[in-house]
Amino acid sequence: MPMEHFLAKLFESSTGHNLKDAKTPEDIMVLFKGLGFENIPKEITQKLSLLSIPTEHRNSHFQDSLDISEIIDDLVPEELSELEVNELRAASLVHDVGKTGPSEATPEEQLAFVKLFNLDFPYGQMIDGVKINEVSITKALELKVSTGEITVEKAEELVRFVVTACARQENVRAETQVTAESTMGKFWAAHVYWTYDVLKGTNLPKTLIDTASSHHMLEGHDPAGVGFEQITSGMVSLELADKYQAYRIRLLLVDKYQAFLGRSGRTHEETIDIMRARIDGFFKDCPDERISLRDLYLQILEEINQKKDVFAREMDLAGEK
Description:
Blueprint: H1 6-15, H2 25-34, H3 42-51, H4 61-73, H5 82-94, H6 107-118, E1 126-127, E2 130-131, H7 137-146, H8 152-168, H9 184-189, H10 191-200, H11 206-212, H12 233-237, H13 243-263, H14 268-282, H15 291-306, H16 308-317
Antiparallel strand pairs: 1-2
């Protein structure tokens, strides 16, 4: 019988129910309270509830977050306290909250962002010879219209809501200035900035917010200004000195692992090779003081690699929850 993980046991013991795919804001609040976070704003639980809406072709984004938390449970080092582990679990739950769009987005607009993020594009898909991440939102939606997955009217509505919300956002930066002609890659990447903007206005610990919004560091997205590349070898070598540094990297790498393996049809071995190449590329020609940081990324990646069978079980369980 597969082992039941912390959040699933916590939810069942608190409610008498299984942790289902679709979750109400009240269900999600049960999880946070069980982790010791009593004052999560209702705005956050409502956004996560939207992200828990099941989709036809893939897990919901909130289910992905639950899976990531379970995988991380198998990786956390013994030196972390219960408080720190629970903070990491909470960071896993909120790391994709920005997929509901800017903090100023209305509920109707938030749903449009979620629907656009939910559209399934296989990894490496090309449209007219161009990689999917390099085509415009408009072009990508034209493909979905041509396959009958959405109507012309729905595509136009999604674009209208998304563009309107992005034009109205107060925390305007180049990375979140999304228009109908912005690339899908820019749209997808913008969510970490929206995650940061949504969370920084809460009373959540700064370490949790920084961890949640830093999971695309390898692609150069650092809305919290964590600046992993600035960490020196001495800081890294001090018992993985900044323990938060080490667990930020765990969330970052597990998010990538889950995305490639769970949504892109890659094998475990292919996923590890892709991630290793990304780490090598990120730290290419790095100065000596950053070598230890690169080695820490590779060390944690190897921890993931060594637990292939455990994670295969975790991924198989995703549809049973």
